[in-house]
Structure formats: C-alpha cells, structure tokens
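Q: A reviewer asked whether we had any structural model of the full assembly, not just the individual parts. We don't, so I'm hoping you can provide one. Inputs are below.
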Amino acid sequence: MYKIFNEGMIEVITGPMFSGKSEELLRRLRTLEYAKLKPLVIKPKFDTRFSAEEIVSRSGISHKTHILDNIKDIYDLLKQDSYKAVVIDEAHFFGHDLVLVADDLANLGYLVIIAGLDQDYLRQPFGPMPELMAIAERVTKLQAICVVCQHAASTSFRKVASNKTNLLGNYHEYEARCRKCHVHGEKMKKVND
Ligand SMILES: [Zn+2]
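A: Here is a predicted structure for the entire assembly that you could use as a starting point for your response.
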C-alpha cells in the first residue's frame, strides 16, 4: 500500500467502462476519510446518468460531489473549506484545462485523485486523460472482462450506431471488450453498413 498521505501528487485511475473505476475512487474516498484528509469531490456537468450530486458506482455506493462545467471554477470551491485532497470522476469529459489545473493543484500541495476513461469507443486516447497519465505520480489501470471471449478487456465497445464521442450510456449502449473482439466488432459494423 502506498502512502496516501503524500502531499502534492496526482493519481490517475483509468480503464474501460465496467472496470470498477468509480468503486476504486470510492475506496480512495474512504481511506481519505480515515486519514482525516478532507476531499473536494468533482464531476463534470455532462455526467448525470446516475445522480447529479453524487458519485455512484454501479454497485450502488455513493459520495456527495460538486458538479462543475468549467474545471477552473474549482479554485472558488477550494476557498470555501480546508480541503487537503481533490477527487475528480469522469475526468475524460473535462477539456485540456484539467491537465493544467491538476498539475497546479498538486504543486500547491493537494493530493489529486482522478478517474476517467483512457480510450473512447474507437480506442482513441480520450480528452485530457493521456496527458494526465503522463504527469501523474501513480497510474492505476483497471481491466474489465470481455463479454465475447471472457478474457481481460481494456476497451469500451459501442453496440449502438452513433458517431458522437460523448454519447453517455450504460449496459444497453456499451460493453467491455478485449482488443481482438473490439477490432472484430468494428469490422462487422462496417460490413453491416
Ligand atoms: Zn474478447
């Protein structure tokens, strides 16, 4: 177990959909509570799937959170209490500004914990995540189980026809797949077009 008490560092928790990123984040939040390191919890405005004011894992555990449209507004929230840590969920929906803000907050001494998808549904690096992974002290990359072959899965496969990168969804729209089954699935989509 690493020392979560380290001041001024970034941890990124990433992986495909259904890999347990929110559960991992909630586990970190419990550790912060035991350590009495008060966290400010942030989600982008975009993600309102489960609850507007809470981080809710698919297993149903939750934690109160602030919704931000612009990540730079985080500085106003930080002034309101003696926060020691910043926890950000669904971080792939924030723009490049998140890279600058996360780096700045770590430099100021905050423990910054960020969860988000590393790849979009076409396996392309997603938003600010690649850069965040590069500047982080620690990266936890999770895997799900491929629904086709049951091997470890690192991609989110979109089952429905839509070209929107930010299409939100759950089990109906997406499934976890390994590389091989993702590539095969995309080929089959083109054949069926
Ligand atoms: Zn597979």
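A: Points you may want to mention in the reply: Residues 21-34 form the longest helix (14 residues). Residues 146, 148-149, 151, 177-178, 180-181 surround zinc ion (CB under 6 Å).
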